[in-house]
Design goal:
binds adenosine-5'-triphosphate; helicase activity; Rossmann fold; PH-domain like; 32 helices; binds magnesium ion; eight-stranded mixed beta sheet; alpha/beta; seven-stranded mixed beta sheet; single chain
Length: about 900
């Protein structure tokens, strides 16, 4: 029989099929001593076998399937051990078994007429097989690899995409017991030859299927290894022996001293890597990070650079050069990338030859200049020439000039200049805020995929594992094909994982789902790194967060009542109208909370309209205008009309008085509200600057720089949270006031992270203003209590339109609690009356964070996840009437405040 047709046999059949080797590990080369592991490697191997990979990853440790070679991953004397770098799995070891015996007579196994023999339920066996259609031909052609599952008397045959391609029932139980390597059996019209036994663990984890898609990850290096099996001595480089060194490399020295104190030295390539990439047998030279940079790097950044280096060099997953750096916001992903670019542009492990020439950085428009500035900040203007594309600097200029090595471009501009960019050979591609590539159908993703660059890095501040399809898109972008095709990924990972999470899942389904999730995490964890903000907390000043419940003004209350009695709201509560009228009602209530004049403008705007939709809106506003004074002029609004505005003004005044040199970032989700706040600044003579959706991208960095500068006279930065808050550094401000609330906690978290980040010199005060008893409190409660928003935590695109409300929930939303000081506190089931400082005593331990959300404990990282109700209870809280407020800022605003919550992080940090 001809065996060469089966995919697993394509590379010759002198040996029986080599068992599956996950990416990152290739066949051992002859001189590689796989049995000699260092003790810590062994420890990690045990850990990995117990599926503790998730925890390892969470502890900011990095896992690699590569075996250490002498001198690999050395970080000399910088004082931070790079623990957990090597994670090995026992199953990873390739084994070469003796040639199998081919049995000549396949036995047809047929459906039994009587099932007399008892079958033990527990007996499930798994085999790797090759199959073909049954025929009497002498020279058969195997059609594919498959997995045979024998359970009791039944057989299932699955292809390597996980699809069932055959089923059958055994004739005799004894036949099953006899099945072993080399046997041939007939199943449902297919002839099957057993190639080997698969362990239950390999089946459950899905590893046995990876021969198809996943094997791509090892193919190149296995081929390299195979070459050396055929003639092990011919191609072995001995870089250390003088005669092997090509001329010109004799004096190859590292660019920086690897033995100097605090030096940061990259991993040396192992033998496989050398076989693949050091064809000219150049001497191995240490790649050492520029000490100028190392001096500034935080420990987690050193680890991050090492991780990125290993990824893009193809050292973590052989032949794969992609990485996802998903550190939380503010951890300095930019600096880590800059260090990598600078290193690879000047150095390389083979003869010191630089690894890259040109780098492409794609980033949101508002951050193009931030990247330029960060290059300048860390490397000055002489070392690297970067070319940020803007209106005055076109891609053509970059292409013509040999001068520049780094092109920084926005996603929008990339699409416009794709044809030109395709003509440039980029060696490294970095996609900042790259979670937008989670949709493989969008133009940006297809454009970037079309670039031939192999070394790809995605930077994102948000976890990437919430949605398994989006996860696939990101993984497939950085390391194309590593998870196989989308259809096989669905069968092997997505379906079992999702099934296992259904309440109705059987124990077996749960176990399978969990194992597949663990395997997926292990595989992808090799090139995804995420650290939480805790790693930099110690470098940051204290953060004082306050939730401030502001009493609504008399006009607000009257209008609110009237709105709730409107026909439109009544219809919503009866579930009568299908055209999402609740969104219009919610919008009107939110406007009213910000300021009644916003509602007035909407009423006036709709008075003369006639379309059906607007009629609906008109029914909401009916009779409202009569509540306003007859001569009401929205341009002449007063501050007393809005409870929050009164609090805001007092807050600004006290900040000015007590901290005259400090600045405020004032955030709203609405441009119209920003207009009001801007007018207030003008009235009170507060110098301000503003960034919203209308601000041209080219001006954004200038505005940010102006505000951050110590010479700036601006007191207030008016920021639209949805218009490009992502990635900005606003460390010039130390007070953040969130004037209104969004359904999506991620929006607020993003805004908060702009100030409390590296470089901040002052304690950061955050004030979230909510109107007591109104819809704002309800939105806040929903933010902190609803599990179903967990997806929204990381997805800034989720808005209220994506939220489904039951009639019950709408009833709750459309209720005004006039007599409560704080409905949120009432819900906490706290015994205190709010008349003195109170902190809930039943301290519930916050679970230790696990970054991976594929496992059964679906959790978010601890530092940036939205607060839960029980956590809020641990915050200090007190009513506005409380006598001794120690916080001078709160003391000054309490007249208009019914309740406070306060939490201080890093109280003891001395800066
Ligand atoms: N080692 C360091 N020492 C001092 N400042 C640093 C260091 N690393 C980074 N920073 C500064 O911290 C700020 C945040 O860094 P950066 O913008 O790279 O964060 P990020 O991880 O990209 O966050 P985001 O997800 O919000 O974009 C920048 O001003 C940067 O210059
Ligand atoms: Mg960033």
């Amino acid at each position: 029989m001809r065996r060469s047709a089966a995919p697993s046999q394509l590379q010759g059949n002198s040996f029986k099929k080599v068992k599956f080797i996950p990416p990152g590990r290739s066949n051992p080369s002859p001189d590689e001593e796989i049995t000699k592991m260092s003790p810590d490697v062994k420890l990690l191997q045990v850990a990995a076998n117990k599926n503790t990979f998730l925890q390892l990853q969470n502890n900011t440790q990095i896992c690699s399937l590569n075996l250490p070679t002498d001198g690999s991953a050395r970080e000399i004397n910088h004082g931070h051990n790079y623990n957990g770098k090597h994670c090995l799995k026992a199953s990873v070891m390739a084994t070469l078994d003796p040639p199998h015996t081919v049995h000549s007579a396949p036995k047809e196994i047929t459906v039994p007429k009587r099932q007399e023999e008892e079958e033990p339920d527990s007996l499930v066996k798994y085999f790797s097989v090759v199959w073909c259609k049954a025929s009497k031909k002498k020279h058969k052609k195997w059609e594919g690899d498959a997995v045979l599952i024998v359970k009791g008397k039944s057989f299932t045959l699955k292809d390597l995409e996980g699809k069932d391609i055959g089923r059958g029932l055994a004739y005799k139980f004894k036949e099953l017991e006899k099945i072993e390597e080399g046997h041939r059996v007939m199943i449902g019209g297919k002839e099957v030859e057993v190639m080997g036994i698969i362990s239950p663990d390999d089946f459950n984890s899905g590893r046995c299927f990876q021969l198809g898609g996943g094997s791509l990850a090892i193919s190149s290096s296995s081929q390299a290894a195979k070459k050396c099996f055929s003639n092990p001595f011919k191609s072995v480089c001995k870089p250390s022996s003088k005669e092997n060194r090509p001329n010109g490399f004799q004096d190859c020295k590292p660019r920086h001293d690897p033995h100097a104190q605090n030096s940061l030295v990259m991993s040396r390539p192992d033998n496989n890597h050398q076989w693949m990439f050091n064809k000219s047998c150049s001497p191995i030279v240490d790649v050492v990070i520029d000490p100028y940079l190392v001096y500034h790097l935080r420990p987690h950044q050193k680890e991050g650079i090492l991780f990125l280096y290993e990824c893009v060099m193809g050292m973590r997953v052989n032949g794969r050069c992609g990485a996802i750096l998903a550190d939380e916001m503010g951890l300095g992903k930019t600096l880590q990338c800059i260090s990598l670019i600078w290193t690879l542009q000047c150095q390389g492990p083979y003869g010191g030859k630089p690894v890259i020439k040109k780098t492409l950085i794609v980033t949101p428009g508002s951050l193009v200049n931030n990247w330029r500035k960060e290059f300048q900040k860390w490397l000055g203007s002489e070392r690297i020439k970067v070319f940020p594309v803007d209106q005055d600097h076109k891609v053509e200029e970059f292409i013509k000039s040999p001068f520049y090595s780094v092109l920084i471009i926005s996603y929008e501009m990339l699409l416009r200049s794709l044809d030109q960019i395709k003509n440039v050979k980029f060696d490294l591609l970095i996609c900042d805020e790259g979670h937008r590539l989670k949709n493989s159908a969008i133009k940006t993703t297809t454009a970037l995929i079309s670039l031939s660059c192999e070394k790809r890095i995605i930077l994102t501040g948000t976890p990437v594992q919430n949605d398994l399809q989006e996860f696939f898109a990101l993984i497939d972008f950085v390391n194309p094909g590593i998870l196989g095709s989308l259809s096989s990924y669905r069968k092997i990972y997505e379906e079992p994982i999702i099934l296992s999470r259904q309440p109705s899942a059987s124990e077996e389904e749960k176990e399978l789902g969990e194992k597949r999730a663990a395997e997926l995490t292990c595989l992808t964890g090799l090139f995804i790194l995420r650290r939480t903000q805790e790693v930099i907390n110690k470098y940051l000043p204290p953060k004082i967060e306050n939730v401030v419940f502001c009493r609504p003004g008399a006009l607000q209350i009257e209008l609110y009542r009237k709105l709730l009695n409107s026909q439109a709201v009544r219809f919503c509560l009866q579930g009568l109208l299908g055209n999402s009228p609740h969104l219009i009602c919610i919008g009107a209530l939110k406007k009213l909370c910000n300021h009644p004049c916003l509602l007035f403008n909407s009423i006036k705007g709709k008075e003369c309209s006639s379309t059906w939709d607007e009629n609906e809106e008109r029914s909401l506003y009916e009779g409202l205008v009569n509540v306003f004074p007859a001569d009401y002029n929205p341009l002449m609004f007063t501050e007393e009309e809005s409870g929050k505005l009164q609090v805001l003004l007092k807050l600004l005044a006290v900040i000015r008085e007590l901290r005259p040199t400090e600045k405020v970032v004032l955030v709203s989700n609405y441009t119209q509200t920003l207009n009001i706040l801007q007018e207030v600044c003008r009235r009170h003579g507060y110098a301000f600057t503003r960034l919203d959706g209308q601000t041209p991208v080219s001006q954004r960095q200038q505005i940010v720089d102006g505000f951050n500068s110590k010479y700036s006279s601006d007191f207030i930065f008016l920021l639209s949270s949805k218009a490009g808050g992502v990635g900005l550094n606003l460390i010039g401000g130390s007070h953040l006031i969130l004037y209104d609330i969004d359904w999506n906690p991620a929006t607020d978290i993003q805004a908060m992270s702009r100030l409390w980040r590296d470089g901040q010199k002052h304690p950061v005060h955050i004030y979230r203003l909510l109107t007591t008893g109104t819809i704002e409190e309800k939105i806040y409660q929903r933010q902190i209590s609803k599990q179903d928003l967990s997806g929204a935590v990381v997805d800034l695109t989720k808005t209220s339109e994506h939220i489904q409300f039951s009639v019950e929930e709408l009833k709750n939303l459309f209720t005004l609690h006039e007599s409560s000081h704080c409905v949120t506190h009432d819900l906490l089931d706290c015994e205190c009356t709010g008349d003195k400082d109170h902190t809930g005593d039943s301290l519930e331990k916050v679970p230790i964070s696990r970054n991976c959300q594929l496992g059964p404990h679906h959790q978010k990282s601890s530092s940036l996840k939205p607060l839960s109700m029980s956590q809020l209870k641990q915050w200090k809280h007190f009513s506005g009437d409380h006598l001794n407020l120690t916080d001078p800022f709160l003391e000054r605003i309490r007249e208009n405040v019914s309740f406070f919550f306060q939490n201080i992080t890093n109280q003891s940090t001395v800066i």
